[in-house]
Amino acid sequence: MTLIHSVRVRKAEAADAAAVADLLGQLGYPTAVPDALRRIRAFDRPDCALLVGLLDEQPAGLVSVSVIPLMHRDPPVGKITALVVDDRCRGRRVGERLVSAALDFARGSGASMVEVVSSNHRAGAHVFYRRQGFSVPEKTRFVIDLKA
User: Which of 128, 132, 105, 89 is nearest to 51 (CA)?
Assistant: First the structure.
């Protein structure tokens, strides 16, 4: 039996707020527990999911995925907007299970593809995403910070 079978994935719940806040902090986005709770509740919609990966029934990682329509193509596209595995749980296939669950959600929601954006400094994450089957398209992403 491989370790992947010991990882259980489920929808995030209000009781996960402290763990979600901790995981987001590990990802580089310090988050207060009340803010994590608000974000968990914001994902209670049919077009997105916030999932936690459990090891020994304790949150060990999370993934958020949204399915959005695009004007220029059908069907909609899934977007993984956050993925993090607890530093202490890396190498135990939590990330693989979370990506698999996110892909299943997107597929079940009618998405034709799933994309993920990862900062240039996250070289280890880029290796992980390629191992999961993601490719690097020939595109440039432009952003503007509306709160600046």
Answer: 105
Write the DSSP string, 84-144: EE-GGGTTSSHHHHHHHHHHHHHHHTT-SEEEE---TT-HHHHHHHHHTT----S------
* Domain ranges, ordered by start, for the chain: 3-131
Helix (H) or strand (E) holding 81: strand 73-85
Other CB atoms within a 10 A radius of the CB of residue 121 amount to 9
Contact 65, 102 (CB under 8 A): yes
What is the CA angle 102-103-107, rounded to 5? 120
16-26: pLDDT as tens digits: 999 999 999 99
Instruction: Look up tokens 């992403």; give the residue.
Output: 141
Query: What does pTM read for this prediction?
Result: 0.89
Predicted local distance difference test score (pLDDT) of residue 18? 98
Domain 3-131: assigned CATH number = 3.40.630.30
Cα–Cα distances in angstroms (integers) from residue 28 to residues 62, 79, 82, 84, in the given order: 14, 19, 11, 10
pLDDT digits (tens, 9 = 90+) for 49-106: 999 999 999 999 999 999 999 999 899 999 999 999 999 999 999 999 999 999 999 9
